[in-house]
Design a protein that fits this description.
heterodimer; A: about 110 residues; mainly beta; five-stranded antiparallel sheet; globular; B: about 110 residues; seven-stranded mixed sheet; about 0% helix; about 55% strand
């Protein structure tokens, strides 16, 4: 089956710092999505990004589908950014997502 | 617009019992999918429904089943509960049949004792 690897597994940042999270996948995919799981367990969709670059406030994401990776950039981090960031890929485009193991981000004041 | 609503938020059941979880998608969304999250296995796909039809099923035993109603609301059922079924069960809805963002509910945390 497809492998979805995220790095780093854990990240601790000082408030205001920038970070880059990486997602590598082992096969061609139909689309890729980034999620943030907050400490209460809710998964928030950050980006739907099968290819190219998107920006939303302090967050941006880039997917290079031909090279099978995606990057999530967080700038000027805030304590509310803490949580686990997941990338998930859809092989068939039928809303069947394979999730990576996540990057646990802790932002300290 | 209301988000994806899952009920109940918490459940405690005993081994051997069965349980039904409910999910109401975002208004207008016709695809509903279910995921199980555990510390050991992470987030795993259970099944997906579109227009009342199950289109995909993950690698879970037949004790896990689901259905979708004509108003797109969905239920999942787990029969003969095992300790290993303790998990956070997440439901997601999506506007289209595919290639559209998934939006998740707050989840149902099931504990099997």
């Amino acid at each position: 089956g497809i492998q979805v690897e995220q790095s780093p597994p854990d990240l601790i940042l000082q408030e205001g710092a920038n970070s880059t999270l990486r997602c590598n996948f082992s096969d061609s995919v139909n689309n890729l999505q980034w999620f943030h799981q907050n400490p209460w367990g809710q998964l928030i969709n950050l980006f739907y990004i099968p290819s190219g670059t998107k920006q939303n406030g302090r967050l941006s994401a880039t997917t290079v589908a031909t090279e099978r990776y995606s990057l999530l950039y967080i700038s000027s981090s805030q304590t509310t950014d803490s949580g686990v960031y997941f990338c998930a890929v859809d092989l068939t485009g039928a809303n069947n997502l394979f999730f990576g193991t996540g990057t646990r981000l802790t932002v300290i004041p | 617009k209301a988000g994806v609503t899952q009920t109940p938020r918490y459940l405690i059941k005993t081994r051997g019992q069965q349980v039904t979880l409910s999910c109401s998608p975002i208004s207008g969304h016709r695809s509903v999918s279910w995921y199980q999250q555990t510390p050991g296995q992470g987030l795993q796909f259970l099944f997906e429904y579109f227009s009342e039809t199950q289109r995909n099923k993950g690698n879970f035993p037949g004790r896990f089943s689901g259905r979708q109603f004509s108003n797109s609301r969905s239920e999942m059922n787990v029969s003969t509960l095992e300790l290993g079924d303790s998990a956070l069960y997440l439901c997601a809805s999506s506007l289209g049949a595919g290639n559209t963002p998934l939006h998740f509910g707050n989840g149902t945390r099931l504990t099997v004792t």
